[in-house]
Amino acid sequence: MRRLPALLLLLGLALGQPGEPQPLLPAGAQCLEHECFAVFWGSRSFAAASAGCERAGGHLMTVRSTVAEEAIALLLQNRGGRLWLGLSLPPSLNCTEPDRLLRGFRWVTGDRRTDYTNWAPSGPRCGEGCVTVSRELRWEERRCEEPADGFLCEYSYGGSCPRLPAAPGLPVTYATPFGARGGEFLALPPRSVAFVPALGLELRCDEDGDGGGLRWGRDSPGAWPCLLAGGGCAGTCDEAGGRPRCSCPESSVLGADGRGCRSPCAGAPCQHHCVVANGSFVCMCAVGYQLAADGSSCEDTDDCASEPAPCEQKCVNTKGGFECQCYSGYRMVDGRCQREPHCYQKLCQHFCEELPDGHRCGCNPGYAADPLDPSLCLLHCNDSQCPAVCDASGSCECPKGFLLDGEDLCVDIDECDMNHCEFDCTNHPGGFECRCPAGYRLVNIDCIPILGDDGEEVFSGDLEPAPQTPVPSRPPPKAERLPRGVLVGIAVGALLTVLALLAVGFHLARKRCRSHSSMDYKYGGPHEKELGLQAVPSGQKP
């Protein structure tokens, strides 16, 4: 007696709560490849109809094309009444908007996309937030809380099973997961069941265990009578031994259900490639790999260790291959290592010569390499006089240590006549050299006494020359002629200093025809001397 209340509770749950409408079964249904449509007759409000569709995994029908309209015509079969469609006004709208395609309505799927409408003529309607369709396929606005005569549901699926081929004396009845039953379906959604009473078969549309998609099958393995859909065999069905059995092509084997065919490589543990051979499989590896001892995984091959070596100079092994590289000073050109040219980088001012271990810069005649930067070239003269280098505008230039004498002649400046050195001086074209007596050392152009351990000067008394240390010269400024007014100023200054006047006269005597229009002096060392004079451009006062 204690079980009676529990049984009554279960019975109440099965029948539904008091006041709730009982679930309806589809009065008609039709399925395409990915969609099914069903019609339910029964007085329901819009909300109750929507819940009825959702209970079986669908929603109220969306009519976006003429294909959906034709499906409605087949389902109604000229029966009168009004059925709910999946259109409703959003909460933000209370009245319809007749000038818009869907009149402001929105599909229950949340969008307004459509290629088709079939509205009955009407103006703006307020308070009528849902839509029904009639036997004439016209859409009409209606209050959502008012009951309609029925509703249309739509179910979407990822695929379907085809209807089983007809066989004489073997009628087939189908049942869909949303409750529709019949024998005239064009396609059946997943989880549909096919009943064949004559053979005592109950088949189910489900996923193929071997990954072949949806197909009809049953729980027990092996073929059923070949008369119905070829026994369910993916290959061929044969009843020669009195029992139906399936067989597969030579390159395939029977699946676990005894009906499907699969490749021996399906599920094989091969890391790279699988090849069918003699009804079984063999694992193979990509180029640059070799099969490991387990027969399925692949290991990288050290291509650089092969003989002969695959690269001309350097080989770097990579996963599944290798990379050829070149030594320093070489570069890869069309797969070969060639000595890398340096001169193409324009490292030299004048011209460049390729050497086995690098390059060497050269200079045009009349120039020499800059001692501070061998890639640059400076004007150079190895004699006391050389022609000047002039450009198209008539501006001429002399090497460092020379000054322009006349129109186009560069004359060496004798720095020794200008007392640049403290003791002994030797003039060279474009420069000079200072030397010191014993007990002194040369610092730039000055002779500094050498101090002993006691701090006293070390001096032997003889004037033996110290090691000759050439004093480098900087490039002078571009030589230009000086105006006569400047020469007059220089002459006046020279008169004020008797020693300077004598030095200039002696210098002019040695150079004979030296021009009075220029008195530039060559810079004699890295530190500027007090006696050095710089070129004064034409038009400036001294």
From TrEMBL:
Residues 32-146 form the C-type lectin domain. It is found in: Membrane. One of its GO terms (biological process) is positive regulation of axonogenesis. PROSITE patterns: ASX_HYDROXYL (PS00010), C_TYPE_LECTIN_2 (PS50041), EGF_2 (PS01186), EGF_3 (PS50026), EGF_CA (PS01187). Residues 1-16 form the signal peptide. The keyword Transmembrane helix applies. Keywords: Disulfide bond, EGF-like domain, Glycoprotein, Lectin, Membrane, Phosphoprotein, Proteoglycan, Repeat, Signal, Transmembrane, Transmembrane helix. Residues 300-338, 412-448 form the EGF-like domain. SMART domains: CLECT, EGF, EGF_CA. It comes from the Eukaryota. Residues 467-476 have a biased composition (Pro residues). It is a single-pass type I membrane protein. The keyword Glycoprotein applies. GO terms for molecular function: calcium ion binding; carbohydrate binding; transmembrane signaling receptor activity. It holds the Pfam family THBD. The chain crosses the membrane at residues 486-509. Its main location: membrane. GO terms for cellular component: cytoplasm; membrane. Residues 459-480 are annotated as: Disordered. Interacts with ITGAL, ITGAM and ITGB2. Interacts with thrombin/F2; this interaction switches the specificity of thrombin from a procoagulant to an anticoagulant and antifibrinolytic protease. Interacts with ANGP1 and ANGP2; these interactions significantly inhibit the generation of activated PC and TAFIa/CPB2 by the thrombin/thrombomodulin complex. Interacts with PF4; this interaction enhances generation of activated protein C. Interacts with HMGB1; this interaction inhibits HMGB1 inflammatory activity. Endothelial cell receptor that plays a critical role in regulating several physiological processes including hemostasis, coagulation, fibrinolysis, inflammation, and angiogenesis. Acts as a cofactor for thrombin activation of protein C/PROC on the surface of vascular endothelial cells leading to initiation of the activated protein C anticoagulant pathway. Also accelerates the activation of the plasma carboxypeptidase B2/CPB2, which catalyzes removal of C-terminal basic amino acids from its substrates including kinins or anaphylatoxins leading to fibrinolysis inhibition. This is Thrombomodulin. It comes from Atrichornis clamosus.
